[in-house]
Amino acid sequence: MTTRQFQVVLEWDAKDKVWVTYVPSLNYLSTYGETREEALANTQEAILGYIEAAAKEGIPVPPDDNKAELVQVQVAVA
């Protein structure tokens, strides 16, 4: 069995009170969960579904070459 790794963005949505994930290299595939663990488990399931659907359609799954960083930027406001 082959394994692949994908970079996942995980953030808290205060309005909906859920953890939201995005997979940039898979067209920003997104899901959520009430806990971090649930959100990440849902993400693994969504990635697997994406890969299986792509294989059925003969669509290549792009490599996870996204090297995103989370950075802070200061902005002067009046």
Outline of the structure:
Helices cover 28% and strands 21% of the residues. It is of the alpha+beta class. It has one domain: Double Stranded RNA Binding Domain (2-Layer Sandwich), CATH 3.30.160.250.
Low-pLDDT residue intervals, each spanning 5 or more residues: none
Q: In CATH terms, what is the fold-level topology?
A: Double Stranded RNA Binding Domain
CATH class division:
Alpha Beta
Helix content: 25-40%
What secondary-structure arrangement, pairings included, does this model have?
Blueprint: E1 9-13, E2 18-23, E3 29-33, H1 36-57
Description:
28% of the residues lie in helices and 21% in strands. It is globular, with a radius of gyration of 15 Å. It has 78 residues and is α+β, with helices and mostly antiparallel strands. It is built from one helix and three strands. The protein has a single domain, classed as Double Stranded RNA Binding Domain. A three-stranded antiparallel beta sheet has the order 1-2-3, with helices on one face.
